[in-house]
Amino acid sequence: MPYLLNSICTISGVFYKYAKRHGDSSILTKREMKRLILEDLLKIYHGFLLFQNPRDRKTVELTFQMLDTNGDGLVDFNEYLLLILKVAEACYSHLKPS
Amino acid sequence: MPYLLNSICTISGVFYKYAKRHGDSSILTKREMKRLILEDLLKIYHGFLLFQNPRDRKTVELTFQMLDTNGDGLVDFNEYLLLILKVAEACYSHLKPS
Questions:
Q1: Cα–Cα distance between A66 and A37 in angstroms, integer?
Q2: What is the mean pLDDT of chain B?
Q3: Per the CB < 8 Å rule, is A91 touching B9?
Q4: What residues of A are in contact with residue B8 (Cβ under 8 Å)?
Q5: Within an 8 Å CB–CB cutoff, is residue A22 touching chain B?
Q6: CA end-to-end span of chain A, whole Å?
Q7: Cβ of B85 and A89 within 8 Å?
Q8: For B3-95, CATH number?
Q9: What does the domain layout of chain B look like in residue ranges?
Q10: Which residues are in the EF-hand domain (chains A, B) (predicted)?
Q11: 3-state secondary structure string, B27-79?
Q12: Cβ-contact B19, B75 below 8 angstroms
């Protein structure tokens, strides 16, 4: 599989890995989002020093609120992609000569 | 590097690979976008059968128009990410049980 497509499918696959746990694979519950943050996003936070202490409850809560743009207590795939965009922009700003 | 971060940085890196060619790495000219489509996106189009003949001029033109949302004849990083979102959604719809 072409590496660009492989990267994009990896991003979709991470959402699916957590969303399918409670049956409805189109949304992440807070609990599933917390696991995604702790298991996958923390390493990214470390890389970009986005938070003082990525492990504490406030970080998880803040991330969840940031993503749950319609306030329904769930994170759907498009809301998840907002976070991916933010990280992609941070990645890109590191690549681009200042 | 964590695989999710690696995937996101790969996506940013593909934009940078083409955008830096003419000096200003924050935008893609039509020529650079055409090369990105022909060298990287065609394989994705094949995978998702998005176009009858991904190689013809119309496909490149259509893709460029779709991405150049502000009509300035250039594609910036955020406009590029719109395409990535579309492919991610297509990927996800293949993952999710119908």
A1: 13
A2: 81
A3: yes
A4: 7, 11, 44, 84, 87-88, 91
A5: no
A6: 33
A7: no
A8: 1.10.238.10
A9: 3-95
A10: 55-90
A11: EECHHHHHHHHHHHHHHHHHHHCCCCCCCCHHHHHHHHHHHCCCCCCCEEHHH
A12: no
Asked if B4 and A45 touch (Cβ cutoff 8 Å), the reply is: no
| Other CB atoms within 10 Å distance of the CB of residue A35 | 16
**Band of the pLDDT at A48, cuts 50, 70, 90?**
low
Q: Is the pLDDT of residue A50 over 80?
A: no
Angle at the Cα of B33 (from B29 to B39), degrees rounded to 5? 145
Q: Is the pLDDT of residue B55 over 60?
A: yes
Structure tokens belonging to residue B57: 């001029």
Checking ipTM against 0.90, whether it exceeds it is no
